[in-house]
Write the structure tokens for this entry.
Amino acid sequence: MPNIESPAWSGLPLNVEKLNRIRQATALLNNVKLIQGTGDDDLQGAGQSGENENGKAQWLVVLQKRVARYYDQLPVELKTLQRVGSLVKNPLFRFLERECSVLSSLLQTVRKDFQLVLEVCTGERKSTNQLKALATSIHADVVPTHWKKYIVPDIMTATEWLNDF
């Protein structure tokens, strides 16, 4: 009797070990990208010592432009479906109505977060730990965790996520 059983006996594909290693490698690469930073060192090495003429950090100026572009790109609101008469009995309508309401609340959350980050970038609002984490995530082009109301691939950038929104 062999010491190692085939993964097929438990219903797994024969290349399950390879798939698991690919998933682990992808997670490792994503973690390395976060650890390596967001390119702040390149901005500081440009002879500006990390600040522009107004005394603002260079990464905040870049972040402000990026967030303003994203903010303008998003719709102001997403209309939810109206429950009318016999439509409520249709399961497909109820499904779409739930999805629209979840996406509408997510859109409002994203727009509110962008507004808060813009206020921090312009100096109108004091930075908190949550806002700093949000700004760092956006600057690193990573989808913030509280925006992930549905399954998002780990390799998807925030720009791709917002374009898909």
DSSP finds six helices and no strands in the chain.
